[in-house]
Q: What sequence folds into this?
C-alpha cells in the first residue's frame, strides 16, 4: 500500500513537472502574441538541522507562479497572480495546522486578482489570497525564502479576503478584510480579520509605515483574538539595508510587545545577500508574569544564476522562558525557478 | 534516498536552467504607478506590455551599440504606455543598471518618436543620485534621440563619472531594446490612435494587415524605377482600415532615407488618395524636412505633382498601399 502511494506521489510530481514545462513552452509561443503572461515553475528543497536535539527535517516544494496582466485598448484592467504550491514535509515536528496531520498539502501561496483600472493604480480592489498588510512584510517579499520578517508574531502571513490598495503621490496603502484562516479557506470555524498599513513610497531610501490588525486569527490552538498596532521603518544606504518594526497589542490573553531589527548587506549586483536579525517578544500577561523571549538569526543567500538560489540560515533562541532549552536550528535551501 | 533524489533532480535542473528566467517571484512585481503619474501627469490610464528580452534581442542591441545588455537583464520585462484616453503619450521603461553601490532603478519616459522625455531615479541607494551633476545630466538628456545620445556619449565620456556614464548608456540601451522588443506592440497602440483620431471609428473598425500587391510594385517600378528613391520599399507595412467590411482608408508605416538623414513614419490615406495624417516614428531631422512632409496633409495624391522629395515619397507610399 505504501509503495502504491509512493508511486502515485512520484507520478504526480512528474506530471506536474512535465505539465509545467509544456505550459512554459506554450507560453513562450503565446508571449510573442502579446499575452502579457509570465509563468514559471518554482522548485525548492529545504533541510533543517536541530542542533540541540540533533534531529533533522525537510520540506520540498513544487509550484507554479503565474502573473497575467489583463489589458484592453483602453488600458490595463487588472493583474492575476496564481501560485499553487504542493508542500511535502518530512519529519517536521510542528507542521502548520492546515496540514491536518498529513505530510503533504496543496497551498495557494499568493493567489489573487487586483483590479487596477479604477483609478490608474491609485485605488485598486484585490480579491483572493494575499499578504496581510502589516509592517515590513507589506513591501518586502519573503515568500518561499528562508529569510522571514515578523509575521510569526501575528500567527498569519497571507489570508483570503478583499482589500483596497494603491499608490498615491505621498504614500502607499492597503486595507483588508480577510477570513483570518491563513491558507485554509474552508476552515469550519469563524475567524475574521481587518488589517491595514499606510506608508511612505516603497521606492524611497527611507520608508516608514504604520499598521493595524484586529480580529480573530485561526491557529493550531484554535481562534486567537488579536489586536495589534505597529510602526515600521526601512532605510537603504549604498549596499546596506536596515529594517525595524515595533508592534504592540493583545494576542489572546497575552499583552505583548514585539520588536524586530535587521541589518543586511547586498553585493553590487544583488546576487549575494547577508543578513542578521534580532527579535524580542515581551509578554506582559499578568497571570503568568512578565516574560521576555529573544532570538537571533543570521543568513546568507546566493543567486548563482537568475534561476538558482542557494540559502542558509542559523536561528538561535537566546532565551525562552517557556522551555528549558533554547532552540538552535540550521537551515539550508536550494530553489530553482524555470 | 530522498536526499539522493533531490540532488539528482536539482543537478539536472541546473542544466535546464534558462538564462532568461525571472529570479523574482511574480507576487513581488509592482507597477510604477507613482512614476507614471509624475512623468505623465496628464495621463488617465496606462497599458502594460510584457515581452521577453532574449539572447536575440541582446545581440541586436549589440549591433546598434558598442555595449549590450548583461545576461542578468534577460527575462520578461514590462513597458508601460501612458494613455490619455486612447492617445499614447509616451512609454515608461524601468531598467536596473549596475553601479558601484548596487543596482539603480531608472524609469525612462520616452516620447512616441523614441526621444527621451524625462527620467526618474526610481531607486538609487547612492546619495550621489540627488546631487547637482546628476540633475543637470538628466535635463541635458531630455529631448535627445538615439543618434544624439550616441554622439553625446562619444564626446563626453572623459568628462563624466561612472554614475553619469551608466545613466547615458542606460538611455541608449532603453531606446534600443524598447524599439527592438516592444516596437511592434507600441506601433499597434499608435496605429489605433491615429485611426481613431482621423475616422469616426466604432468597435467594428478594424486595422487589417495587408500585403503589397504585385500590381503596386509594377506601377512603382514603371513610375519611379526599380531602386528605392526616398522610401525604403522593403520596410513598408500596409494596413487597410475596414469599417463594417468597407475599406475606409489605408495606413502605411515605412522607413525613409535621404542623404545623411533617415527615419520612420506613418501615413494615413483616404481611399480616394488624400493624405489624412503623417506621424513620425523617429524624430524629424530638422524643421524644413518636417514642414515639407506636413504640408502634404490634406492634399490629394492624384492631383499633386512629383516635384519635391516629399511629394515623391507621398506618391510611392500611396501606390504601395493600393
A:
Amino acid at each position: 500500500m505504501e509503495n502504491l502511494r509512493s508511486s502515485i506521489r512520484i507520478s504526480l510530481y512528474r506530471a506536474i513537472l512535465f505539465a509545467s514545462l509544456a505550459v512554459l513552452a506554450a507560453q513562450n509561443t503565446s508571449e510573442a502574441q502579446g499575452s502579457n503572461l509570465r509563468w514559471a515553475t518554482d522548485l525548492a528543497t529545504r533541510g533543517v538541522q536541530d542542533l540541540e536535539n540533533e534531529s533533522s527535517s525537510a520540506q520540498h516544494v513544487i509550484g507554479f507562479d503565474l502573473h497575467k496582466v489583463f489589458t484592453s485598448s483602453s488600458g490595463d484592467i487588472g493583474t492575476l497572480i496564481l501560485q499553487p504550491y504542493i508542500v511535502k514535509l518530512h519529519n517536521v515536528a510542528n507542521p502548520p495546522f492546515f496540514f491536518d496531520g498529513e505530510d503533504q498539502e496543496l497551498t495557494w501561496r499568493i493567489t489573487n486578482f487586483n483590479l487596477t483600472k479604477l483609478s490608474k493604480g491609485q485605488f485598486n480592489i484585490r480579491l483572493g489570497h494575499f499578504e496581510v498588510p502589516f509592517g515590513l512584510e507589506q513591501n518586502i517579499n519573503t515568500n518561499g525564502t528562508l529569510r522571514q520578517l515578523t509575521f510569526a508574531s501575528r500567527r498569519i502571513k497571507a489570508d483570503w479576503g478583499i482589500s483596497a490598495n494603491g499608490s498615491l503621490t505621498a504614500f502607499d496603502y492597503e486595507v483588508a478584510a480577510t477570513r483570518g484562516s491563513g491558507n485554509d479557506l474552508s476552515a469550519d470555524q469563524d475567524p475574521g480579520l481587518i488589517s491595514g498599513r499606510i506608508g511612505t513610497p516603497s521606492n524611497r531610501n527611507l520608508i516608514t509605515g504604520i499598521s493595524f490588525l484586529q480580529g480573530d486569527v485561526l491557529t493550531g490552538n484554535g481562534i486567537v483574538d488579536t489586536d495589534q498596532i505597529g510602526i515600521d521603518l526601512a532605510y537603504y544606504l549604498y549596499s546596506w539595508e536596515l529594517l525595524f518594526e515595533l508592534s504592540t497589542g493583545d494576542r489572546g490573553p497575552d499583552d505583548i510587545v514585539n520588536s524586530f531589527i535587521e541589518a543586511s548587506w547586498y553585493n553590487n549586483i544583488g546576487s549575494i545577500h547577508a543578513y542578521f536579525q534580532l527579535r524580542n517578544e515581551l509578554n506582559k500577561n499578568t497571570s503568568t508574569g512578565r516574560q521576555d523571549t529573544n532570538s537571533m538569526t543570521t543568513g546568507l543567500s546566493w543567486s548563482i544564476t537568475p534561476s538558482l538560489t542557494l540559502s542558509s540560515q542559523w536561528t538561535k533562541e537566546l532565551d525562552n522562558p517557556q522551555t528549558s532549552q533554547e532552540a538552535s536550528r540550521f537551515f539550508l535551501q536550494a530553489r530553482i525557478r524555470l | 534516498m530522498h536526499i539522493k533524489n533531490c540532488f539528482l533532480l536539482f543537478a539536472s535542473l541546473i542544466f535546464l536552467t534558462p538564462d532568461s528566467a525571472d529570479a523574482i517571484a511574480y507576487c513581488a512585481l509592482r507597477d510604477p504607478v507613482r512614476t507614471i503619474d509624475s512623468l505623465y501627469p496628464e495621463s488617465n490610464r496606462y497599458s502594460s506590455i510584457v515581452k521577453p528580452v532574449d539572447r536575440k534581442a541582446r545581440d541586436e542591441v549589440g549591433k546598434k551599440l558598442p555595449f549590450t545588455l548583461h545576461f542578468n537583464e534577460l527575462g520578461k520585462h514590462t513597458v508601460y504606455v501612458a494613455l490619455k484616453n486612447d492617445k499614447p503619450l509616451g512609454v515608461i521603461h524601468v531598467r536596473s543598471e549596475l553601479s558601484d553601490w548596487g543596482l539603480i532603478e531608472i524609469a525612462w519616459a520616452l516620447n512616441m518618436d523614441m526621444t527621451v522625455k524625462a527620467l526618474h531615479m526610481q531607486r538609487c541607494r547612492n546619495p550621489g543620485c540627488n546631487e547637482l551633476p546628476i540633475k543637470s545630466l538628466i535635463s541635458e538628456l531630455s529631448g535627445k534621440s538615439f543618434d544624439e545620445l550616441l554622439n553625446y556619449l562619444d564626446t563626453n565620456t572623459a568628462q563624466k563619472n561612472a554614475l553619469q556614464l551608466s545613466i547615458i548608456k542606460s538611455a541608449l540601451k532603453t531606446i534600443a531594446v524598447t524599439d527592438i522588443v516592444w516596437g511592434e506592440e507600441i506601433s499597434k497602440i499608435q496605429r489605433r490612435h491615429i485611426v481613431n483620431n482621423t475616422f469616426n471609428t466604432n468597435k467594428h473598425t478594424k486595422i487589417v494587415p495587408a500585403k503589397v500587391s504585385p500590381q503596386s510594385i509594377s506601377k512603382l517600378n514603371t513610375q519611379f524605377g526599380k531602386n528605392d528613391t526616398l522610401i525604403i520599399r522593403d520596410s513598408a507595412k500596409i494596413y487597410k482600415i475596414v469599417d463594417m467590411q468597407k475599406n475606409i482608408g489605408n495606413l502605411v508605416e515605412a522607413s525613409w532615407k535621404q542623404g545623411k538623414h533617415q527615419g520612420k513614419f506613418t501615413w494615413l490615406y483616404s481611399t480616394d488618395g488624400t493624405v489624412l495624417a503623417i506621424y513620425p516614428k523617429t524624430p524629424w531631422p530638422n524643421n524644413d524636412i518636417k514642414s515639407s512632409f506636413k504640408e502634404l496633409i490634406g492634399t490629394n495624391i492624384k492631383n499633386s505633382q512629383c516635384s519635391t522629395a516629399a511629394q515623391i515619397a507621398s506618391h510611392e507610399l500611396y501606390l504601395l498601399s493600393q
About this structure: Residues 44-337 of chain A form a domain with the Porin fold (CATH 2.40.160.10).
